[in-house]
Amino acid sequence: MPTKVSYLGPKGTYAEKAAYALAKLENLDNPEFIPCVGLHSVIEHAANKLCEAAVVPIENSVEGGVTATLDSLWKHPQLFIRRALVLPIQHSLVGSGCISEISEVLSHPQALAQCNNWLNRHLPNVLQLPTTSTAEAVRMIKGSSFRAAIASRPTSDQIGLKELAFPINDVAGNCTRFVLLQNEKITQKGNISSLAFSLHANSPGALLQALSCVAELGLNMSRIESRPSKRELGEYVFFMDVDLSNKNQDTINLLIESLKPLCEHLVHFGSYPSSDINSE
Fold first, then answer.
1. Can you name the CATH fold of 92-165?
2. Tell me: the pLDDT tens digits for 189-221?
3. pTM higher than 0.90, yes or no?
4. How many other β-carbons are positioned within 10 Å of the β-carbon of residue 183?
5. Which of 25, 41, 210, 259 could bond 36 through an S-S bridge, CB–CB 3.0 to 4.6 Å?
6. Contact, 8 vs 133, CB < 8 A?
7. Which residues pair with 80 in a beta bridge?
8. pLDDT in tens, 222-253
9. Handedness of CA 69, 216, 186, 85 (dihedral sign)
10. 250-259 and 206-216 are packed helices; what angle lies between their axes, rounded to 10 degrees?
């Protein structure tokens, strides 16, 4: 039986590249890749067991956390992270006409944001239009001389499209961390552990007390960010990664036990390895 893996489609997205790489790293049996429209759909496919796994971006080095992914993970605490992969992102301006003719630029909102300074400098008067993915933007500009897309460099099968400018991302070291999700508890070792929690009350020192649990165990917190709980103004959910390098895996269990009395809800998405991939 194939292992179905959902990802943000259509074909040609950075997410597809990450999905292939993660499937290979994890030696998934006979992987079958399922492109989906929108990150919520990607995660729902795994949460509802329409796919055995899902690949989603969780953090970008320029724009920070991917909010659609974080909100969906909090909504589906039964999902676990099996592995992470850091993928360099190098954006290209792709089109059919000349750059001087461009009046509209299409891409995923994250890609538009990552190239904002370049667009303001070189194409200050163009209309920026968001799409569900970079690959969808490429599909929508085909045959148009006044539209361009921000995406990866054009491939040989993209007839009629050419590279108008490269690279156009504002930060040379732009990269995105993707994670491989599964709808089953995973017990494994890794150099990162991810948690999310909400506190009993928004009171003075409540968050500091929770973070002190991390410090007391000598753990390095490599990421923390908040998202609205969507229940009331001023109430937040906190997402946290801790570095387990050179630490016993039992340390994360001690952290969870010390956090439990302080949290209204606490979700552990698992401990997992993280890898880098080159840009080629």
1. D-Maltodextrin-Binding Protein; domain 2 (3.40.190)
2. 788 999 999 998 777 788 999 999 999 999 999
3. no
4. 19
5. 41
6. yes
7. 182
8. 999 999 988 878 788 999 999 988 777 788 99
9. positive
10. 160
